[in-house]
Design a protein that fits this description.
38% of the residues lie in helices and 21% in strands. The protein is an alpha+beta fold. It folds into 2 domains: 88 residues; 236 residues, 2-Layer Sandwich (BirA Bifunctional Protein, domain 2). Helix 5 packs across helix 10.
């Protein structure tokens, strides 16, 4: 038995010293193979007396199991070490550009997002966010849209097939106005927020996409009136387009969630088939706005006899197209690196109302 113990210690030592999978496999064959050391020793059991054979058989099985377990553990350790060595040898720094001349670009849509936030941030607006998936109440009912309103129809709205709340289906939000409702439900006036985000409608052409971006603005307090709305938006377009003279006009319109409602036009020129923002004798519709409807305030638990305010909605994609002369909205989502190189902005060109929104970046139009 002392001989068996010595043999086991020697074999386990050899297993521990194996430095490669090939060496370990050669050791396994020489010890546990058909003509291996332990196999040959076990063939001698037939020559022993019954009592001696029983004790020797148990010892051989114990030795065989110990060596097999040691080989399996060593094999796993060597395989892990081999994989780690290979990973280290093949490591690639993914933070480096593929080519030295390659430089990333900020998408013009997100540059426009930062510019709009910078302008309204200087006016004292905070940024609010909300979910892309909305229930019927926040997306329609609380915004004073009746059950038969065209916006609720299947051809305009993406309804989710599964999931209902109080018998009403969930939708992909059709406007960021739903976030205004959520904000007013949880915050008391005064309220001064902008709500940028993705919205979804069934539409697709050169100026419309099924997923697009909006920014809503909302002010609610005891003093705000239509004159404040007009002044706020007039100052916004002049600052955003970085032009001293951008004429504006407001035309009566209708939106369920505002009363009175208006659409705002800005001055432009279409001479020689080229659209230019500014004092050019023509007009271009750019956004919808109005005073918050009393029913919207009531839906949020705010007394319309005490509080009033205004709201407006602007398409971020449309603003980017106008400012940077991008003719087709669909190119925003095509992931074309050539397009990004032409229209994109360098990463450190951070918009600021102090130094200029976009004077140092991209291909400013």
């Amino acid at each position: 038995m002392d001989e068996m113990k010595t043999l086991q210690e020697d074999l386990l030592k050899q297993v521990g010293q194996a430095s490669s999978l090939a060496d370990l496999d050669a050791l396994r064959v020489s010890v546990l193979g058909k003509k291996g050391l332990i196999t040959e020793k076990m063939k001698t059991l037939g020559q022993m007396a019954p009592e001696e054979r029983k004790a020797a058989g148990q010892a051989f099985n114990t030795l065989k199991d110990a060596v097999a377990d040691a080989i399996a553990a060593k094999k796993e350790a060597l395989e892990d070490a081999e994989i780690n060595a290979r990973l280290a040898a093949e490591a690639v720094d993914v933070t480096l550009p593929v080519r030295p001349e390659t430089q990333g670009r900020i998408h013009p849509l997100y540059q426009t997002y930062d510019e709009v936030v910078a302008v309204f941030g200087q006016m004292g607006f905070a940024v609010a966010e909300g979910p892309d998936i909305e229930d019927d109440f926040h997306n329609f009912s609380a915004l004073n849209m009746p059950k038969n309103h065209p916006a609720r129809q299947m051809q305009d709205t993406f309804y989710l097939q599964k999931g209902e709340e109080n018998g009403e289906k969930y939708v992909l939000r059709t406007q960021t106005s739903a976030v205004q409702i959520r904000f007013m439900e949880n915050n008391r006036p005064p309220v001064r927020i902008i709500v940028p985000g993705r919205t979804y409608r069934c539409d697709y052409d050169a100026t419309h996409a099924p997923m697009f971006h909006q920014i809503e603005g909302l002010i609610v307090d005891t003093e705000t009136n239509m004159a404040h709305l007009k002044g706020c938006l007039a100052e916004f377009v002049r600052t955003f387009f970085e032009l001293d003279d951008v004429p504006v006009r407001f035309r009566p319109s209708f939106f369920p969630f505002t009363e009175p409602s208006a659409e705002m036009d800005i001055g432009c020129s279409r001479a020689n088939g080229e659209l230019k923002i500014g004092n050019g004798g023509d007009w271009l519709e750019i956004l919808g706005c109005g005073m918050v409807h009393p029913n919207v305030l009531r839906a949020c638990g705010i007394d319309p006899d005490v509080y009033q305010g205004f709201a407006f909605g602007i398409g971020l994609d449309r603003l980017a197209m106008l400012k940077y002369a991008i003719p087709d909205l669909r190119t925003f989502f095509e992931s074309d690196l050539r397009w990004m190189k032409h229209y994109g902005f360098v990463p450190l060109d951070v918009p600021s109302t102090g130094s200029g929104l976009s004077m140092t970046g991209g291909n400013k139009r």
